[in-house]
Amino acid sequence: MFDDKSPIYLQIAAQIKEQILHGELKEDEQVMSTNQYASFYRINPATAAKGFQQLTDDQILYKKRGIGMFVSPGARERIVSDRRERFFQEKVDAMLEEAAAIGIPWNELIDYMKKREGENSQ
């Protein structure tokens, strides 16, 4: 389930974000407790709590004292917005820099993307 590429608590946060993004968890829906999560995935409860705290800090989850953790209203939109921003910064900017480095003109990039868009819509 977890890999060695990043800290487990970040992988927990990413997994829950994916569940929200794909509609498996909805706004105001309760999520597993940190202890349930830790037991289910056989990890330290403190690690699970750190992942949940990250999601709370990012306003993806919120706490109801004595009840549990819930998906925040607008969480999906925040996740999509963050991923869009990262996509442009990490993927598109890198692509544009590489295209410039090897002399691919903008119009050729645009033509290629339009061609791919046509292929994907069929």
Characteristics of this structure?
single chain; 122 residues; mainly alpha; two-stranded antiparallel ribbon; 5 helices; 2 strands; elongated; DNA-binding; WH-like_DNA-bd_sf
Question: In a nutshell, what does this entry contain?
Answer:
With 122 residues, the chain is mainly alpha-helical. The chain has five helices and two strands; from the N terminus they run H-H-H-E-E-H-H. The protein has a two-stranded antiparallel sheet with strand order 1-2.
Q: Biggest sheet, in brief?
A: 2 strands, antiparallel
Q: Percent of residues in beta strands? A: 5-15%
**What is the tally of helical segments?**
5
The beta-strand count equals: 2
**Percent helix:** 55-70%
What class do helices, strands and sheet pairing give? mainly alpha
Q: Radius of gyration over alpha carbons?
A: 19 Å
Low-confidence runs: none
Task: Indicate the mean pLDDT.
Answer: 93
Protein architecture, described:
- A two-stranded antiparallel ribbon has the order 1-2.
- The longest helix is centred in the last third of the chain and has 27 residues, at 75-101.
- The two termini are 35 Å apart.
- The chain is elongated and about 60 Å long.
- It contains five helices and two strands.
- Helix 1 (8-21) crosses helix 3 (45-57) and helix 2 (34-41) packs across helix 3 (45-57).
- By secondary structure, it is mainly α.
